[in-house]
Design brief:
Blueprint lengths: L9 E5 L3 H12 L3 E5 L15 E2 L7 H20 L6 E2 L3 E3 L9 H10 L5 E3 L1 H7 L13 E4 L3 E3 L1 H14 L3 E3 L6 E5 L2 E6 L5 E3 L2 E4 L5 H7 L10 E7 L9 E3 L4 E4 L5 E4 L8 E2 L5 E2 L2 H14 L8 E8 L9 E4 L6 E5 L3 H18 L17
The structure holds flavin-adenine dinucleotide.
Flavin-adenine dinucleotide binds next to helix 1, strand 14 and helix 8.
Length: 376
């Protein structure tokens, strides 16, 4: 059966991160004329400085788990299409907690097994022999969980590939355009206006502006709770190291990259970030050095790692932790995409949002994630 014809002719997408680009391509594949507007170059937001661990590890609601699993499946299909890609890797994920009352490893392992999510509980000694590049001695007595189906992606590379397809299919890309705003007429979103005042009319629009979504919604009187912190992502120099898995350890997350460098991330440095008068961010040296030291402890062989770059910026996280997807009830014609785990969800959400925007569908899979849950 052929795909249903779209009910709309054109769409405007504000935001050139993974959600905007992925939805733009899906709409174009459906025959919709799409204009994508980004303030700077593509992938200049969270998608350009993401750990981008593809996973549905740990305890989440069942709807969130299912959505993330669908997200991971889409990457599996993509990896079949690009079997030699060095920007997409399914090397597994390894997680352990600090020892003590808050250690959840046994509970999380049971939870994941109950859902049928592939998980193996390993001792430190098992880790040393099973997971290449990890120092098993750094794993506590509660052990670690290996999720072999997990992986990582270089979002800027993926966004670049999607952008190539988008342009080749006739999509209009406007980058370095400053802050765009939705164009509203008689209570409905009818397009977008760029910072220089140019207007682009459309049947529907998508606000895929990452951490800027809550403020843009608030400008229209619509509430979306925001829990966005300022994240720190440390990049090391490229090294020759066997690690392929993503590591989530008590004080550092480590993932290999396309260039052979490591990305290092954790929650605790977020508390140490300060903003300078010019808007840029900084952390004391002991914070970046702390991430580096923690990474050196968990890697085997241990390396003399050096920092080549520190990436700062908001990590989009809705106030209740769950994604926010779909049409704004208060502003028909305007859809939003605002989520943590946007790397994992990037491809699946492009598909689902495009179908909701173009075909007028309301996917059951997204019912828990509607923006109206924040309405007072
Ligand atoms: C340090 C870090 C670690 C992460 N780790 C993971 C992980 O391990 N796994 C995972 O799945 N996810 C992870 N994430 C989250 C994931 O990267 C994000 O959810 C995802 O990249 C968000 O994509 P987006 O398209 O919503 O936003 P963005 O990538 O921020 O894109 C939004 C774009 O819109 C532009 N923009 C904003 N306002 C306007 C405007 N008014 N007009 C025009 N353009 C505008 C921005 O400049 C930007 O280019 C992490 C994020 C960070 C920062």
């Amino acid at each position: 059966m052929p795909r249903p014809a779209p009910l709309i002719e054109n769409a405007v997408i504000i935001g050139g991160g993974i959600f905007g680009m992925s939805t733009a391509v899906q709409l174009t594949r459906m025959g919709v004329c799409v204009t994508l507007i980004n303030d700077g170059p593509l992938a200049n937001g969270a998608s350009g400085r993401s750990l981008a661990w593809l996973n549905t590890a740990r305890k989440r609601s069942l709807p969130y788990h299912r959505l993330r699993q669908a997200g991971m499946e889409r990457y599996r299909v993509l990896s079949d299409k690009y079997p030699d890609a060095d920007w997409l890797c399914f090397g597994g994920g390894l997680t352990w907690d600090a020892e003590g009352d808050k250690n959840e490893i046994a509970e999380v392992y049971r939870y994941e097994r109950n859902l049928g999510y592939e998980a193996h509980l390993l001792s430190g000694a098992d880790v040393s022999t099973t997971v290449l590049g990890v120092n098993g001695a750094s794993v506590g007595d509660s052990g670690a969980i290996l999720n072999p189906n997990e992986g990582w992606v270089e979002l800027p590379v993926l966004i670049g590939l999607l952008a190539d397809e988008f342009r080749a299919a006739g999509g209009i890309m406007i980058t370095d355009a400053g802050k765009a705003t939705p164009l509203v007429h008689e209570g409905r979103a009818v397009g977008a206006r760029t910072a220089s005042g140019e207007t682009y009319k459309a049947d529907v629009i998508l606000m895929a502006t990452g951490p800027a979504v809550p403020a843009m919604a608030a400008a229209g009187g619509i509430s979306i709770a925001d829990g966005t912190p300022t994240a720190v992502l440390v990049e090391t120099q490229p090294v020759d190291h066997p690690l392929r898995a993503v590591l989530n350890t008590p004080r550092v997350a480590v993932r290999p990259t396309q260039t052979g460098a490591f990305f290092l991330d954790s929650g605790w440095p977020e508390d140490e970030v300060t903003q300078r008068a010019d808007g840029s961010y900084e952390v004391p040296d002991w914070v970046t050095q702390g991430l580096l030291d923690e990474a050196q402890k968990v890697l085997d062989p241990r390396l003399d790692l050096k920092i080549t770059n520190v990436h700062f910026g908001p990590k989009p996280i809705p106030g209740d932790g769950d994604p926010v997807f779909g049409q704004l009830k208060e502003l028909p014609g305007c859809f939003v995409a605002f989520s943590h785990s946007g790397a994992t969800l990037g491809l699946i959400m492009g598909e689902l949002l495009a179908e909701e925007m173009a075909l007028g569908l309301r996917h059951t899979m997204l019912e828990s994630f509607r923006p109206e849950r924040f309405a007072t």
